C-alpha cells in the first residue's frame, strides 16, 4: 500500500490520530476522512497481517460493511444463511431474519484479508496510514490532556512523536494507550479467552451455516466449558475452528487447547478436522467484554473497540461493535472540531460515551449479568436445553439476544419480546461519561 512506504516520513501533525488499524481504527479513520478531517492512522504491523479471530460476521456486521462502502459482492466473501446450534446430539438451524433493514445473510472472511480491505478503504477515503509505527505512549500537556503519541517507526524502530489535539485509542485488547492515560480495566466485568485454528476441510468449507457447539466438556475438570465452540466455513477449502470461554466460576482452570482436542475427537472423521489437515497453529487471545474500560472519552482520548472492552458479553462478537463504535467516535469528533477548543468542544466530546450507553448500555448490562450467572457457571447448555431447542419461537428469541438484533430491529414479535426484555434493565448511575476511577 503506497502510504506504508511513507511510514513516519510525512507530516507528523493531524487533526486526529487513530492508534491501531483493526476494524475499530479503520472504521474511525474512514468516517473521519469522509467528514473531511485530517487523520493519521498509526499501526504497528505491516498489512496484510493476521489477527486471531473466528472470522464470522452476523448480518449486523454486513450492514456496517455496506455503510463503509466495502464491496461485499467481490470474490473472497463467503455468505452464511444463519446459525446451527448443536447440543447433546440435537441441532437447530436459525436463519438470519428476512425482515428489517439489515441484509438477510452473514459473512465470513479471514482477518488476514478483512483488515487489509478495511484499512485500504480508509486510505482511499483520505486517511494517512503509517504502518510499522508502534505507539509507545501518549504525549500530554500540563493539564494531563493528550496532545499526541510517541512512537517507534519502521524496522529500525526510530523514535518519533505525532501530534494531534484528539486521539482515538483503537489498539485492541492491550489497551496500551488508554492504560497510559489512567483508564484501568474494571475487574468486575467479564474477560474471556478464545482460541482458533484453521483446517482444510472440503466437507465443511461451503457449509451455509455458522456452526456453534454448546456441550463441550473441559477434560481436566469434567465440567461444562463456560463458553462454546465454533466451526465457521471460509469457502476457500478451509474452516475456522475454535472455542471461547469465560473463567470458570468454581475450581479448575479452563484449558482451551485440551478442550478443543477432546471436542475434535468426537467429530466425524470425514470432516477432516485432524492434525494432518491443520493449516495454522492454535492461537488464542483475550476478549475484553461488557464495556470493561470507562469512560470512553477522557482528556482528548476516545476509546473504541477492544480497547474499551466492547466485545459482546452475550456472544464474544466484537468486530461489528468495533466498527460501529469507530463510526460513532468519528461522528462525535467531526462535530466537536467545529467548536473552538475549550468547554464547548468538551461538551460535544463527552457525548460519545453517552451515545454508546444509549445504543448498547442496557443490552450489555443484561449480558454481563447473564454471563456471570449462567455462562461462567454452566456455559450455554442451560439455554439450549431440549425444551428451548424444540421451540422455534424460543430459539429465535435466543438468537436475536445473542447476536444483538435488538437495535436494528426486524420489527417482528421476536423483536418486541427481546426489546421489551432489554428495556426492563435499569438505567445506570452516573458512571458512564465520568472520569477514571
Ligand atoms: C479467538 C477469537 C475469535 C473471535 N471471533 C470473532 C468472530 O468470529 N466475530 C467477531 O465479531 N469477533 C470475534 N472476535 C473478537 C474480535 O476479534 C475483536 O473484538 C475485534 O478484532 C476488535 O477490533 P479492534 O479494532 O478493537 O481491535 P484489533 O482487531 O485487535 O485491532 C487492534 C489493532 O491495533 C494495532 N495495535 C496494537 N497496539 C498498537 C500500538 N501500540 N501502536 C500501533 N498499533 C497498535 C494492532 O496491530 C491491531 O491492528 C474474536 C476474538 C478472538 C480472540
Please, could you describe this protein's structure?
- The structure is a single chain.
- The longest helix is centred in the C-terminal third of the chain and has 28 residues, at 351-378.
- The protein has helices spanning 2-5, 23-34, 59-67, 111-125, 176-180, 256-266, 319-336, 343-349, 351-378, 386-389, 392-402, 413-423, and strands at residues 16-19, 39-42, 56-57, 78-80, 82-87, 90-95, 106-108, 128-130, 133-140, 146-153, 158-163, 166-169, 191-200, 209-213, 227-233, 238-245, 283-288, 297-298, 301-303.
- The chain has a domain at 2-80 and 108-187 and 289-362: FAD/NAD(P)-binding domain.
- It has a seven-stranded mixed sheet, with helices on both faces. It has a six-stranded mixed sheet with strand order 8-2-1-12-19-18.
- The protein has 437 residues and is α/β, with parallel strands linked by helices.
- Flavin-adenine dinucleotide binds next to helix 2, strand 9, strand 13, strand 17 and helix 7.
- Residues 14-355 form the FAD-binding domain.
Amino acid at each position: 500500500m503506497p502510504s506504508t512506504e511513507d511510514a513516519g516520513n510525512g507530516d507528523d501533525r493531524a487533526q486526529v490520530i487513530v492508534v491501531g488499524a483493526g476494524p475499530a481504527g479503520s472504521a474511525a479513520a474512514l468516517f473521519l476522512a469522509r467528514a473531511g478531517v485530517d487523520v493519521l492512522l498509526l499501526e504497528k504491523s505491516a498489512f496484510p497481517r493476521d489477527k486471531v479471530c473466528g472470522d464470522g460476521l452476523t448480518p449486523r456486521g454486513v450492514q456496517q460493511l455496506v455503510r463503509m462502502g466495502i464491496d461485499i459482492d467481490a470474490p473472497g466473501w463467503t455468505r452464511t444463511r444463519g446459525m446451527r446450534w448443536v447440543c447433546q446430539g440435537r441441532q437447530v438451524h436459525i436463519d438470519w431474519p428476512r425482515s428489517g433493514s439489515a441484509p438477510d445473510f452473514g459473512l465470513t472472511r479471514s482477518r488476514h484479508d478483512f483488515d487489509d480491505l478495511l484499512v485500504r478503504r480508509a486510505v482511499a477515503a483520505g486517511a494517512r496510514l503509517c504502518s510499522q509505527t508502534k505507539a509507545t505512549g501518549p504525549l500530554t500537556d500540563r493539564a494531563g490532556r493528550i496532545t499526541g503519541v510517541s512512537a517507534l517507526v519502521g524496522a529500525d524502530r526510530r523514535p518519533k512523536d505525532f501530534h494531534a489535539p484528539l486521539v482515538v485509542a483503537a489498539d485492541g485488547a492491550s489497551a496500551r494507550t488508554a492504560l497510559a492515560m489512567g483508564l484501568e480495566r474494571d475487574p468486575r466485568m467479564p474477560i474471556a479467552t478464545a482460541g482458533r485454528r484453521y483446517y482444510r476441510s472440503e466437507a465443511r468449507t461451503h457449509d451455509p451455516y455458522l456452526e456453534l457447539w454448546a456441550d463441550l466438556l473441559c477434560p481436566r475438570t469434567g465440567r461444562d466449558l463456560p463458553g462454546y465452540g465454533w466451526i465457521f466455513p471460509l469457502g476457500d477449502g478451509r474452516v475456522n475452528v475454535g472455542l471461547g470461554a469465560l473463567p470458570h466460576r468454581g475450581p479448575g482452570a479452563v484449558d482451551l487447547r485440551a478442550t478443543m482436542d477432546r471436542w475434535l475427537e468426537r467429530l466425524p472423521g470425514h470432516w477432516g478436522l485432524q492434525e494432518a489437515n491443520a493449516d495454522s497453529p492454535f492461537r488464542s487471545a483475550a476478549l475484553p467484554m461488557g464495556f470493561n474500560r470507562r469512560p470512553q472519552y477522557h482528556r482528548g482520548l476516545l476509546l473504541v473497540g477492544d480497547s474499551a472492552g466492547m466485545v459482546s458479553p452475550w456472544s464474544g462478537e466484537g468486530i461489528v461493535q468495533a466498527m460501529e463504535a469507530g463510526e460513532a467516535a468519528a461522528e462525535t469528533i467531526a462535530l466537536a472540531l467545529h467548536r473552538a477548543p475549550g468547554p464547548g468542544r468538551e461538551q460535544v466530546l463527552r457525548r460519545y460515551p453517552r451515545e454508546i450507553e444509549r445504543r448498547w448500555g442496557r443490552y450489555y448490562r443484561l449480558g454481563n449479568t447473564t454471563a456471570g450467572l449462567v455462562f461462567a457457571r454452566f456455559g450455554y447448555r442451560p439455554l439450549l436445553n431440549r425444551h428451548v431447542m424444540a421451540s422455534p419461537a424460543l430459539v429465535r428469541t435466543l438468537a436475536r439476544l445473542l447476536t444483538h438484533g435488538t437495535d436494528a430491529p426486524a420489527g417482528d414479535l421476536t423483536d418486541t419480546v427481546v426489546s421489551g426484555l432489554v428495556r426492563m434493565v435499569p438505567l445506570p448511575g452516573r458512571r458512564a461519561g465520568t472520569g477514571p476511577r
